[in-house]
Amino acid sequence: MKSKLSIFGCLVLALLGYAYYLGMYAAPTEATMGDVQRIFYYHVPSAWTAFLCFFANFVASIVYLFHRGRRADALALATAEVGVVFCTVVLVTGPLWARPVWGIWWTWDARLTSTLILWLIYVSYLILRKFSSGGQTPVLAAALAVFGFIDVPIVYLSIRFFRTQHPQPVIGGGEGSGLDPVMAKALLVNWLAFLVLAVFVLALRYRLERLRQRLEEAHLLREEEAGAHEQAIEPQPVFEPGRRA
Amino acid sequence: MIKFLYAAYAVTWIIHLSYLAILGRGFKRVKDERRELGRK
């Protein structure tokens, strides 16, 4: 398992290196924004990857609510955590791109606000899982995840339904939208690289959560055994003839 | 202008590497707990 992960890790690094070359050097410089537009090659792929992680979290949460399997629960937690990491990258790189281009770090338009709300929803999901100790925590978290996912299509569609400071979609945005083929290739390779990185990190996080679950089960078993042993050695009442209970 | 590009790039990798470090610490803690459980 470890060697497989190492080989996978090397592949991820190679793909990320190629994606970096395409985004930073091979793709042409954008005419109006200049080199700072290259933030696009990790801002947008990070957002798409976060959406996919949240979708996987949504599916895993539904599966958990129906079957109560611990694997689905572990997958839900792993996808939410990795999704939050990618969403954090989006929320940090966005203002760093906005400042030189728009002249402001942040504005409360529909896209930016709904993305911040999305991040807050999944951070609260993680806080709930971390600090709530009741037996119903995974069920409550799964319910929160199912309703929280409603914000993902809202974020995606916000730039189509509202007039925003954030640019309109460049892919599938109707007439006048579109990308230079070299830019499109750089974008797709970067997305693939971030997607593969997400799968790699997810595999690690899922493995860690399964180990934790097994450890928890082992602790419970140990406690039950200790309880049964104590009961077995508890002194039994002695029968004395002639003595009334 | 270019400093924003490099700052965004650096922040992206700081976030990813910090998360990987947190995962590494989690694996270490689980390993230690397993060893402790085996000793009891």
Class inferred from helices and paired strands of chain B: mainly alpha
Q: What number of structural domains do the residues of chain A give? A: 1
**SS element count, helices of chain B:** 1
Beta-strand segment tally of chain A: 0
Overall 3D shape of chain B:
rod-shaped
Tell me, what's the shape of chain A?
Answer: elongated
End-to-end separation of chain A: 64 Å
Rounded average pLDDT of chain B: 92
Question: What is the ordering of alpha helices and beta strands of chain A?
Answer: HHHHHHH
Most extensive interface: A-B, 28 and 21 residues
Using only C-alpha atoms, the radius of gyration of chain B works out to 18 Å
Order of helices and strands of chain B: H
User: How helical, in percent, are the residues of chain A?
Assistant: over 70%
The averaged pLDDT of chain A comes out at 90
Task: Please name the defining characteristics of this protein.
heterodimer; A: 245 residues; mainly alpha; B: 40 residues; 1 helix
Summarize the structure.
Chain A has 245 residues and is mostly helical. Chain A has seven helices and no strands. Chain A has one domain.
Mind sketching the topology for me?
The complex is a heterodimer of chains A (245) and B (40).
Chain A: H1 2-26, H2 40-67, H3 70-102, H4 110-131, H5 137-148, H6 151-161, H7 181-233
Chain B: H1 2-39
